[in-house]
Write a structure and sequence with these properties.
Length: about 80
């Protein structure tokens, strides 16, 4: 907890997108997702540089990449396991 009881605030927009406002006051967009059974967080950009509409587009693009990368990882893993048999 920060001095004076000030904490970072997170405001959910949906689909894993959050507006993060730290005690310092510099707001940014953050994407929260799960990969390999672990929660991950990725900063997309500062609010002054990225509008809500663009943050939503960026979040959708990043989530698609995460799903595709995870799918290709599983395919490589299963291909490797099949070769071992």
């Amino acid at each position: 907890m920060k001095a004076g009881g000030e904490k970072t605030q997170r405001h959910a927009d949906g689909e894993g997108l959050y507006l993060v406002v730290p005690a310092s006051g510099t707001a940014s967009w953050m994407l929260r997702f799960t990969s390999n059974s672990k929660r991950r967080e990725m900063t997309l950009g500062k609010v002054r540089d990225l509008s809500l509409a663009n943050a939503r587009l960026e979040a959708a693009t990043k989530m698609k990449q995460v799903r595709e990368d995870y799918g290709s990882l599983l395919q490589r893993k299963w291909g490797y396991l099949k070769k071992l048999k």
